[in-house]
Specification:
Elements (H helix, E strand, L loop, with lengths): L1 H4 L3 H4 L16 H19 L3 H29 L10 H7 L17 H18 L6 H18 L6 H6 L5 H14 L5 H12 L14 H19 L9 H30 L4 H35 L14 H4 L3
Helix pairs in contact: 3-6, 3-9, 3-11, 4-6, 4-12, 4-13, 7-9, 7-10, 9-10, 9-11, 12-13
């Protein structure tokens, strides 16, 4: 959240001195969340053996909060334009309803929403694997996906093939694979191919990150990936029980709506506070508090009841999976 609120200082907060702390590395949270997503989605597939149940569970989990956040972001951008973002259009709004606007040539309504497109592609891929009964071979398929990504990077200018790079999960398929392998290990289902896939998925980051990761060199990207992998391992181990601390569980519960609402809303609040003569730090604090409050309201008033309605309407039946020591925090922290 602070990473995004500290972006575009010269444009958003003219005349204000940038913060003394560099919040730029916050963008690496995407890699961590994709690892968590790989873990959680395989766990979800093992809980729901049918493609329909998997699809309904994802729809119930993501769509209610997303729709209200999308409307909120659109309204703020339309009524109080953000300098770094164009005034929204109807085609842009309609394309964003799919969670994959870039595939239709439209910009994301809010800056972090680009990750939803990658998540959606990953979900479709996992649903396809489930429908074809290929889950037992998922490590092999993951290795194939990462190999295809590497080949594409070596033979093409990724920036010139934006849609294809998304559909192939270029630069990020290996992070989903890391999460998948960690779930296999946690569930005591690991085989030699699991360890090989995990090593390859981590090792490939030595080549560096892509455009979204600001072309981070491998000497930085690999240690970060190892650290994120270790963090998830800690969270799912018996040593991660401290993560069940109630405040952390609460943050995990509201993490998805917080992810959805914090950027455009935060920009607006900081700009309003500066117009009132507040300090930049006071504006950041006000934006943080407001985003937490709005995320909490969205979680309890929209996300939970909306999810229940979707599951009831579409007839999804939840099934239990291998328990994670930190309770539901990994599932809640998928964003």
């Amino acid at each position: 959240m602070l990473h995004h609120h500290g972006q575009y200082y010269d444009v958003l907060y003219p005349g204000r001195e940038p913060l003394s702390v560099d919040l730029g590395p916050g963008h690496f949270g995407v890699e961590l969340f994709f690892i968590i997503s790989g873990f959680v989605i395989l766990m979800t597939i093992e809980r729901r053996k049918l493609v329909r149940e998997f699809a309904v569970s994802r729809l119930a989990r993501l769509m209610p909060a997303f729709l209200i956040a999308l409307v909120l972001a659109t309204a703020i951008r339309f009524l109080w334009p953000v300098p770094v973002l164009d005034t929204p259009t109807l085609p842009q709004f309609l394309a964003n309803l799919t969670m994959a606007p870039s595939l239709f040539g439209q910009a994301d309504m809010d800056l972090p929403y680009w990750t939803l497109t990658y998540e959606l592609v990953f979900y479709i891929g996992m649903g396809t694997i489930l429908s074809l009964s290929l889950v037992p071979r998922i490590e092999w398929l993951g290795l194939l996906a990462v190999a295809v990504s590497c080949l594409f990077i070596l033979t093409n200018d990724v920036r010139q093939h934006h849609r294809t790079s998304i559909l192939l999960l270029i630069y990020y398929s290996n992070f989903f694979l890391i999460g998948i392998c960690l779930y296999r290990i946690h569930a005591r289902q690991a085989r030699w191919i699991t360890w090989l896939a995990l090593a390859f998925a981590i090792g490939i980051t030595a080549l560096g990150g892509g455009e979204r990761s600001f072309d981070t060199p491998g000497i930085v990207y690999l240690p970060l990936t190892l650290a994120f992998t270790g963090l998830v391992c800690l969270a799912i181990s018996r040593h991660g029980q401290w993560l069940a601390w109630p405040p952390l569980i609460f943050v995990g519960k509201i993490s998805y709506p917080l992810y959805l609402v914090h950027v455009v809303l935060g920009f607006a609040i900081i700009r309003w506070s500066i117009a009132l003569g507040w300090s930049t730090v006071a504006g950041l604090v006000a934006a943080g508090i407001a985003c937490l409050v709005v995320a909490t309201l969205v979680h309890y008033l929209v996300e939970l009841p909306g999810g229940r309605w979707v599951r009831a309407a579409l007839g999804s039946r939840a099934r239990m999976a291998v328990p994670v020591p930190v309770g539901s925090s990994l599932d809640q922290a998928e964003r």
